[in-house]
Specification:
Radius of gyration: 20 Å
Mean pLDDT: 95
CATH superfamily of the largest domain: 4-hydroxy-3-methylbut-2-enyl diphosphate reductase, catalytic domain
Strand order of the largest sheet: 1-12-10-11
Shape: flat
Distance between the termini: 6 Å
Number of domains: 3
Number of strands: 12
Largest sheet: 4 strands, parallel
CATH class of the largest domain: Alpha Beta
Structural class: alpha/beta
Low-confidence stretches: none
Number of helices: 11
Length: 286
């Protein structure tokens, strides 16, 4: 099969930094129990890799987060995920004398800083159960969630000039439609388009494929927002090609690919290169 790999591929800068940081922490604190508070990144292969290195994962549950944090011991090491977190979590660990590390993505930090330093009301567009959304909503008492895929009640606002921000891993195409709705209702709103640059480039590249291939493969974890957005964009915009999303080679092998002669590979920003390389080699040998 003819195969092309769209660049950029695999990890973005933020994921690379988070993984490198976690590796250094594991090496430095060999005799301590090290924990991820929530998945470091949304990729099962990456999380399993760190579990093999002895890092334990505490599944993030926003409603029970403080109770979960209370259970850590003084000599435990806690690593916060790349998706951001409530600053009060750090305050609790400081009171308990527990060492922690922050791997929040630079792009997410930029968004959190805007929220924290704003005196205006804020409309935040995001997925309700995503950790980045939880983190962002915790940074202001004047922030309103525009839940992704649902209508927003503009009457709850007290001003006509809010700031508009968004989860960094959404689809830029769908966000454009939401921004238009907001501008129609609030012409004075200040809109920040805060899509992650690495995610946006991949989304734009998917739109440039046109009819060159008959199969488009998005390699990414189903829990990865930017991976699922790549799949959704491709599936809706590339009508003459079949789009599939797989997490690894084992999942791909379960799919009958006999009818396809050419494929293009893209990936989410937390997909390991080793998985992409395995899939590329497999396809080339079909």
């Amino acid at each position: 099969m003819k195969v092309e790999v769209l660049k950029p591929i695999s990890y973005c800068f933020g994921v690379t930094k988070a993984i490198d940081t976690a590796l250094k922490i594991r090496e430095e604190y060999k005799d301590n129990d090290v924990y991820f508070f929530g998945d470091l990144v949304h990729n099962k292969f990456v999380i399993d890799y760190f579990k093999e290195k002895g890092i334990k994962v505490i599944p993030f549950n926003e409603e029970n987060a403080f109770n979960q944090l209370e259970r850590f011991k003084s000599d435990d090491i806690v690593i916060f995920s790349a998706h951001g977190h409530n600053e009060k979590y750090e305050e609790l660990l400081k009171l308990k004398g527990i060492k922690y590390f922050d791997t929040t993505c630079v792009k997410v930090k930029q968004i959190l800083n805007i929220i924290q330093n704003s005196n205006r009301e804020i409309i935040y567009i995001g997925k309700k159960r995503h950790p980045e959304t939880f983190a962002s909503l915790s940074y202001s008492d004047k922030i309103y969630l525009y839940e992704y895929g649902k209508e927003f009640d503009f009457s709850q606002l007290n001003s006509d000039n809010p700031i508009v921000l968004n989860q960094s891993t959404l689809s830029f195409l769908e966000l454009t439609d939401i921004f238009n709705i907001i501008q129609k209702n609030l012409p004075k709103a200040t809109i920040y388009d805060e899509i992650c640059g690495a995610a946006r480039i991949r989304q734009e590249n998917i739109l440039k494929i046109h009819d060159k291939f008959d199969l488009i493969i998005v390699v990414g974890d189903s829990n990865s927002s930017n991976s699922t957005k790549l799949f959704e964009i491709s599936n809706s915009c590339n009508k003459k090609a079949k789009t599939i999303m797989v997490a690894n080679l084992d999942e791909l092998k379960k799919i009958d690919l006999k009818e396809f002669k050419s494929a293009v590979l893209t990936s989410g920003t937390s997909t390991p290169l080793v998985i992409i390389n395995e899939i590329e080699e497999y396809l080339r040998n079909l």
